[in-house]
Design brief:
Elements lengths: L1 H18 L11 E2 L8 H10 L13 E5 L2 E2 L6 H16 L3 E5 L7 H4 L4 E5 L2 E2 L5 H12 L3 E5 L4 E2 L14 H7 L11 E7 L15 E5 L14 E6 L23 E8 L2 E6 L11 H15 L14 H9 L3 E3 L9 H10 L4 E5 L3 E3 L2 E4 L7 H13 L3 E6 L7 H14 L3 E4 L6 H11 L2 E5 L12 H8 L6 E6 H6 L4 H8 L3 E6 L1 E2 L8 E2 L8 H10 L6 E4 L9 H18 L2
Parallel strand pairs: 2-4, 2-5, 5-7, 6-8, 7-13, 14-15, 14-25, 15-18, 18-19, 19-20, 20-21, 21-22, 22-25
Antiparallel strand pairs: 1-3, 9-10, 9-11, 11-12, 12-13, 16-17, 23-24
Helix pairs in contact: 2-3, 11-12, 15-16
């Protein structure tokens, strides 16, 4: 009987499974949230004592910071709750921002995102959401000028932590936005000496300029990290840290041993900050680090101005430009007889890092079209972006003769600029088009600077008083692009004009002329009758920081690099004198 029963058991239970096709069970990711109750009462007191009393700058408007803090397939760092508590308290105490903490990916619906100025991914590990629409909304939010902040584990956000695709990056775009990937680290309380890479950078004023010793779990990131893409703020000081001590003797997490700890960067027009120092809860009752994170929050929110120029492009000359708050831009018109690609090359050869675009210039690089949204495909736009990246040049402005007043046509031009990360249009639209244009300015976070020629060709914008009359009823995204050459040929004194326009002056196209008449021709800055030195002194005296100072040289177009270099030398010397 026993044998018979065993036979029947095998027939009816084991054999069907032996011959059935194996069906894998569906993998279900596990969501983990660190509750605020994880912050013990005594730790709350420590955080309250360490939180800064005052914001670094007065907010330009009420600011809202979204904190997103879920982990997927990872238990989550206990410091998440401490960061939430500290940031909420910092915002309340300083008045710099208000905080919304969310565990729900639906907060990234477009209508929801619009209420925030920046998003803080708080120590997120794992594939935190996979909905392509929500991901697209986040990418667009940052690209259009929103802020993105991340700490520690955020370099593993949108990576698969477990399951069938464990270890794989599920959304490389996020890695490009945040600036790095991975969680490679040593001890959770590793001792290092921190190098303050940019002692005068606005985000680093709370640190000893010569660096400091610190303990935490420090990630060595990989992936998209590069000094050619981001401005490194803090790093492991290899000269003052023993990286060869047991059990890590001979170990190099990166071949170049470039272990950045914190950086800022741009993604499109968005402001991005990341720092790996956030593993341990005690980080959030360290007053020095909290001041750093307050500065970072005000930066991503759009209130604290700070340079994001990649470290690889920065030298002492560029730092002097940053210190005074002016950036020298090479507008394409100076080299319009050449292609855009050649303009980018010439800009790099002159040691500049910013350029402008021109709608009627040929693109080059195998693209036999004008640099105009009517003609270029997305693939060709990406080719242009790649060319800019290859030379470490940012295109910040774009001349488009007459922005259209019809809404759909206007949007197409703004969408084109958005794809290239352009910040400011230079244009001479019809005054009646400005309502539609301002709507696009606000939607895309792109400025429009009203350009002038002479009174015949620019009857609405030729003089400071005329152009100010047209833009005074609009927000400060609509302002003035002043061509000093046309001003002087029209009998307008540039120094007096600055006093009229003040902060409406968004872009200045500097010209020095051999004579202040209608026949005046360009000469190198400081050698003509244009009072160029006095003009810069007046800008400085009034505290005016135009978005761009353009080196538009309108002579010898086929061969004017020598004159351009003389203008650059004059600009650098002027900045040096003004800062003494």
């Amino acid at each position: 009987m026993f044998i018979l029963l065993r036979f029947l058991f095998i027939v009816f239970t084991v054999l069907p499974f032996a011959f059935a096709e194996e069906v894998p069970s569906e993998y279900v990711p596990k969501i983990n949230i660190v509750p605020e109750s994880a912050v013990a009462p005594d730790q709350q007191i420590l955080i309250e004592k360490a939180v800064p009393e005052k914001a670094f700058v007065v907010p330009k408007k009420p600011r809202k910071l979204l904190i997103f803090d879920i982990n997927v397939d990872y238990g989550g760092h206990s410091s998440i709750a401490h960061a939430n508590f500290a940031f909420r308290l910092m915002g309340e105490k300083t008045g710099a921002f208000t905080v919304t903490v969310s565990h729900d990916p639906q907060v990234f619906q477009k209508n929801s995102l619009q209420q925030f100025d920046a998003v803080f991914f708080n120590n997120n590990v794992g594939n935190v959401f996979s909905d392509p629409v929500l991901r697209g909304n986040l990418e667009e939010f940052v690209r259009h000028g929103g802020g993105l902040m991340g700490v520690h584990g955020t370099t593993a956000a949108f990576m698969n932590w477990a399951g069938p695709n464990a270890g794989k990056d599920d959304w490389s775009v996020f890695g490009e936005m945040i600036g790095g990937r991975g969680t490679n680290h040593r001890e959770p309380n590793e001792e290092i000496f921190v190098k303050v890479e940019e002692p005068n950078h606005p985000l680093l004023q709370m640190f000893p300029k010569n660096g400091f010793e610190y303990q935490d779990e420090f990630f060595r990131v990989h992936g998209q990290y590069s000094r050619e893409k981001q401005r490194v703020l803090l790093s492991i000081d290899k000269e003052k840290t023993n990286l060869n001590r047991p059990p890590h003797t001979g170990k190099k997490e990166r071949a170049d041993e470039d272990y950045a700890l914190a950086w800022v960067k741009n993604y499109g027009r968005g402001r991005v900050f990341y720092c790996t120092i956030a593993h341990s809860p005690k980080i959030f009752w360290d007053s020095m680090i909290l001041r750093f994170y307050l500065a970072a929050a005000q930066f991503v929110l759009g209130d604290l101005d700070a340079s994001t120029l990649p470290s690889a492009t920065v030298n002492e000359t560029i730092r002097s430009h940053e210190n005074i708050g002016w950036r020298l831009v090479m507008p394409a018109y100076t080299f319009h007889k050449f292609t855009l690609f050649e303009t980018i090359d010439k800009t790099a050869e002159l040691g500049l890092v910013y350029c402008g675009g021109l709608s009627f210039q040929k693109v080059g690089g195998g693209i036999d079209k004008n640099f105009d949204p009517k003609f270029l495909s997305d693939e060709e736009i990406e080719t242009i972006r790649a060319k800019l990246r290859s030379k470490n040049i940012r295109m910040v402005s774009y001349y488009y003769g007459q922005l259209p007043g019809e809404e759909s046509a206007c949007r197409r031009v703004f969408e084109f600029a958005d794809k290239l990360g352009i910040e400011t249009f230079l244009s001479e639209p019809k005054p009646e088009s400005l309502n539609v244009i301002e709507n696009c300015c606000n939607e895309f976070n792109i400025n429009v600077a009203l350009h002038n020629h002479d009174s015949q060709n620019s009857p609405d914008y030729w003089s400071p008083e005329k152009v100010l009359e047209h833009c005074k009823n609009y927000g400060f995204r609509i302002g003035v692009c002043a061509d000093l050459g046309y001003w002087m040929r029209s009998g307008i004194d540039p120094v007096e004009a600055v006093r009229v326009l003040k902060n409406r002056l968004l872009v200045v196209q500097i010209h020095d002329l051999d004579q202040r008449t209608g026949n005046g021709k360009d000469v190198p800055w400081g050698t003509g009758k244009g009072s160029t030195q006095a003009f810069f002194e007046e800008l400085f005296k009034q505290g005016i920081r135009p978005l761009d100072i353009d080196l538009e040289y309108s002579e010898h177009f086929e061969n004017n690099k020598t004159e351009c270099q003389k203008c650059i030398d004059f600009f650098n010397a002027t900045i040096s004198n003004l800062q003494q």
